[in-house]
Amino acid sequence: MAKMGRSSKDAIQVDEKTKINVLYVDDEIDNLNAFKAVFRRYFEVFIAESAMEGKKILENKENNIQIVLTDQRMPEITCVDFLASLVKDSPEIMRVLVTGYADIATVIDAINKGEVYRYVSKPWDNIELKNLILQAFEVYYLRKKNKKLTDDLLRVNAQIEFMLRQKLSSE
Questions:
Q1: pTM of whole model > 0.90?
Q2: Tell me, what's the pLDDT at 79?
Q3: How far apart are alpha carbons 5 and 115 in whole angstroms?
Q4: Whose CA is closest to 51, among 76, 29, 88, 86?
Q5: What pLDDT shows up at residue 70?
Q6: Which residues partner with 121 through β-bridges?
Q7: How far apart are CA 143 and CA 147, in angstroms?
């Protein structure tokens, strides 16, 4: 697991420089405010009232969003389309569906097309949601670490093959 600590602001972080960055997209401002009020102590919280606003936050790479939570029902674009676009544009981001409705067809679509990590019912339990975010970050972190190790291994393997070819050609 990632080595997590707390900064002076009580935010959970991986190391001295990296905080867990969470984006919550919901068209209900009360839900956004409640989420931010509860979780800003633990995470760097970004909120958006629409999928388009959420995409703008995601496009700013300085925000380094690792986890996106999104409401099922939103104007402009469905949560399924929004999550599916994340799979295409930012596949490493962990995606969580939050909803107060039990439309099973939408949930299935979100899981299959948007590759949702977890499903959360409204109203959420703060402790359970905090733990879910931490688990999602752990998966995110391990996937990134695995990709880096794989890339390093491929690079070193290519170097070894080059040195072996040089040695064989000089004999």
A1: no
A2: 82
A3: 29
A4: 76
A5: 94
A6: 99
A7: 6
Q: Residue 158 has which token pair?
A: 């290519």
Contact 137, 20 (CB under 8 A): yes
Give me the residue label for tokens 């939408």. Answer: 106
**What are the DSSP E strand ranges found in 63-117?**
67-71, 94-99
Question: Hey, what amino acid is at 113?
Answer: K
Pairing state between β 118-121 and 67-71: unpaired
**Whose CA is closest to 95, among 131, 66, 62?**
66
The least confident of 4-18, 81-95, 102-116, 151-165 is 4-18
- For tokens 């104007």, name the residue: 75
Tokens of 24: 């919550």
Beta pairing, strands 94-99 & 118-121:
parallel
Specify which residues 6 forms β-bridges with.
Answer: 12
